[in-house]
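Look over what follows to help learners.
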Amino acid sequence: MSDEALDTFARELAAEVEEAIRSGDNSIYSEEEFTRIVLDRLGDEGAIENPTLLWQEGNFARTKYKITGYSIPDDEERLVLVTTIHTEELPPRALNRDEMLTALQQAMKFYECSCKGLHTKIEPSNTDASELARHIFEAREEIGVLRIVLLSDGLTGLRSIDLKKAFDGTRIIVDLFGIERLQRILGEGLRRDDIVVDFSADFGGPLPCLKASSGSADYDAYLASVPGPLLADVYEKYGTRLLELNVRAFLGLRGRKSVNAGLRATIRELPHRFLAYNNGIVATVDAMEVEDHGNGQFGIKSVRGLQIVNGGQTTASLHRAKKQDGADLDAISVPAKIICVGGGADLDEMVAAVSKSANSQNTVQPADFSANDPFHVAVEKLANNTWLSDGKGRWFYERARGSYGAAELKASFAAAQKRRFAQETPKERRFSKTDLAKYLNAWEGQAQQVSFGNQKNFQFFMQSVKDEHPDGFEPDAAWYKAFVAKAILFRTTQSIVKAKKFAAFQANIIAYTIACLSWATGGRLDFDMIWTRQAISPELYKLLESWVGKVDKALRKTAGNRMVSEWAKKVDCRDALRELSFDLPDELPPELANRSAAAKVSGRSKVQQDELRP
């Protein structure tokens, strides 16, 4: 990466932080805005699973702690805590060892203090911070891996630090996301850039392999036998992020007849036959370092951007057998095909094709999550050709990441074109693939899926589209206008929730408020009116403003002793809120006035409205 490219990225990110502060929509503190923007984008890229902004600092038993965010991955055997160093210096400077150590230690102290009962000391007790501290306290025996992520606009290096047993038996992994690493992931689009396996440094030497691809191929392929302990250790470190491109979820180990139960039995009873019985894994990497040993033999020293596109169940089963059953994996070897895409090949397209082909024999049909899916191409075409009622503007669909910036740059070469582009497609009318999935799933009442975060929600959405339309779905102009109306509705609710400055769970409140409106109206709203106005009516705005507090209270009430952000991901949470009644006013907003199904809420079971008043 050139110093010029890094400097440009740093300046653009700093300008985005300043613009967000000036807008008044979020925090007035630059460090908090920097953290929010970077976490949102790392979440979109899948580098951190469903990250949540959380600013919490204080003292506990004379120990100072501080975190700026967190993430609880699905398996709940791991935890991510975020800390931030925001220098506001341009060009970026290198952070010194002491300031990095201080930030990392304060994040680690939050975990240690939480394990010792910090939740009993945080006031008020119903904040996201106290809920997180309580979750850590209750799950302290199950959490095996703590990942501490340091975000910074300074230079930290690309390295990560793996402390096998740092506190109370917990494995602690330190990931440094300095400006150079952020530029690689968010600027260059190396989304899996932080998944690095160094066989030489961490596992005693290069992984022996044979080259299987020809010199004319636009990829390199190697065949190897991966030791079971090595594969289980890599999964422990990175978890399901290794399987982002694997379209089959880990199905669990219950049931004698299941595939995973068979894997478990082989691991425990016949480990020496695992290689013979198991089909192995297919993995892709963004980059790899290979040494030639001569006589057709090679050794893989390290890989970057590892993804297991087939064999996710094998990998997760090995890890679970080791952790839960205490199984000895030393006698187990796993056959592996490792593919590194290079040359002129398109990485995402190639990886998607490999994933789809590798999984084609499975009963669960793979969903193509590529931006080149015909559905997304059709939405982009509609966005380009569907003009607003005044004929002077349109929305911009960022089908491929960074396409808005590329279009903006292209228009900037001529002053007239630059002005025209800004007027026709301002940034506030830009939406991405994950935005699209979020707006539509929320309106469809799938708020629990939205609560999983952008990446998982998007995958759920795409699989749903393919399940409902196995022969393909091509949206038309009416569908697109209704979608934009839903986008306006969601974003307006988002602005209402931000203005209310709820202490926590804002993303969950937004998604469930939209779902509650959809349930209360039978899913029928005058979307044409919203499209024409490019705004919701003051009456609907007032209605949503009165509901967000009720939704917040309902989420907390139904969660009981559970962490609200985790409860919001459950189907039971969705069903519980669907049973609640959010009464519509006698004088309906104009978007509802002509919709006969809108006021039919009295037939559902109700709770006392006083219980839900903010």
In short: Residues 8 and 440 are 35 Å apart (CA to CA). The radius of gyration is 25 Å. The longest strand covers residues 52-60. Residues 247-258, 361-368, 596-614 have pLDDT under 50 and may be disordered.
